[in-house]
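Records of this kind hold a single protein each, on a pair of labelled lines. Below, a sample record shows both lines together.
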Amino acid sequence: MLRPRRQPPAPADFSAEVLAFLEPLYVTALRLTRNRADAEDLVQDTFVKALRFADRFTPGTNLKAWLYTILHNTWRNRRRDAGRDFVEVDSERVDEAASQPGGPAALETPERILLRETLDSDLQAALDGMPDAFREAVWLRDVEEFSYAEIAEMLGVPIGTVMSRISRGRRLLYDRLQETRGPAQVSATGRR
């Protein structure tokens, strides 16, 4: 059975709609990559793909979810490909950071600076200590406010897995905050 070909959105209108999501996509890309330059590249690739494949977008559906799906798929593909590449680092700064107490993780990244300004230090530490799968699911649900179905589609996992990751991620956050703040302070700040 042949499906009727979709009419692509008008290029100028579609580009304007897509660009409206620049900032939230960048914030998510920064959270995924933990590197400003990589986040910028990831967002740029996302927009290039979105504009190139505009005819695949179904008008009237959730453009934000479609863009986040492209972003997450691009990020996953990059991570998979990076695992295959051997990278030799000869930077003096990296060598110097590796010899310092705390190693390279002690360097200030733009993400750390941005999040430190917007999140309280205990919450930031709890988020940083979470495994990527849980942090990503909680972030998409509680910060970006995507539905479980949208997150499942973005991450390419079943909806039950998304619900489980969010539940376990929230529990991890709560437990870590309770350890650092104590039960009275965690209850006062509210739990999602």
Q: What stands out?
A: The longest helix spans residues 159-181. The mean pLDDT is 79.
